[in-house]
Amino acid sequence: LMRDAGFDKAPSRVLPNWVVKLLGLFNPELKQLGSFVGRENFTPSDKARNTLGWKPRNAGDSLIETANQLVEKGLV
Q1: Which residue segment(s) compose the domain that 66 sits in?
Q2: 18 lies in some domain
Q3: In a domain? residue 4
Q4: Residue 53 has pLDDT above 90, yes or no
Q5: For residues 68 and 6, what is the distance between their CA atoms, to the nearest angstrom?
Q6: Are 3 and 67 within 8 A, CB to CB?
Q7: Are 35 and 49 contained in the same domain?
Q8: Most buried among 24, 27, 45, 48, by the most CB within 10 A?
Q9: What is the pLDDT of residue 50?
Q10: In the 8-state DSSP scheme, what is residue 56?
């Protein structure tokens, strides 16, 4: 997705969940991340849609726009 959007340095490999959890034994930041890998989190948005008229955006589009903003601000 990111490479298709012109981010040539985006990672092309996936780190297996078990590796993240193993490295979490030695790195506190990865340990915290390890509790989230392999899980699907779902939060219903019905109330925001109905009450506020909110329309969620596509996750891929949001990711690409965020990356573009980081580049524009010189943070990456």
Answers
A1: 45-76
A2: yes
A3: no
A4: yes
A5: 10
A6: no
A7: no
A8: 24
A9: 95
A10: P
Q: 61: which residues sit within 8 A by CB, 6+ positions away?
A: none
Amino acid 9 reads K
| pTM beyond 0.90, yes or no | no
Nearest to residue 19, comparing CAs of 4, 37, 46, 1? 37
3 domain residue, yes or no: no
**Looking at residue 70, what is its pLDDT?**
93
What is the pLDDT, as a whole number, of residue 35? 81
* Tens of pLDDT, residues 17-27: 899 889 989 99
Q: What 3-state DSSP class applies to 23?
A: helix
Residues 15 and 31 in one domain: yes
Q: Residue 25, SS3?
A: coil
Phi-psi sector, 44: left (phi>0), alpha (psi -120 to 50), beta? beta
Question: How far is the C-alpha of 50 from the C-alpha of 14, rounded, in Å?
Answer: 37
* Residue 9: CA count within 13 A, CB half-sphere: 3
